[in-house]
Task: inverse folding
């Protein structure tokens, strides 16, 4: 996995986690669900990149 994509995916996961936590804290369900979706999207992208690495090696 390229370091650039890995960093971007980890950042997306962290940002999603932050939004989800903030949404829970203030009671904003919309922000919480957006954060959860963003976190899941980052994890999915990271899994795809790991799969690509396995085929390359």
Result:
């Amino acid at each position: 996995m390229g370091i650039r994509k890995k960093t971007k995916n980890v950042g997306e996961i962290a940002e999603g986690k932050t939004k989800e936590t903030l949404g829970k804290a203030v009671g904003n369900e919309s922000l919480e669900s957006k954060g959860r979706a963003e976190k899941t999207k980052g994890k999915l992208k990271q899994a795809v990149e790991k799969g690509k690495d396995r085929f390359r090696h």
In short: The chain is about 90% helix and 0% strand. Residues 29-56 form the longest helix (28 residues). The CA atoms of residues 1 and 51 lie 9 Å apart. Helices lie at 3-26, 29-56.
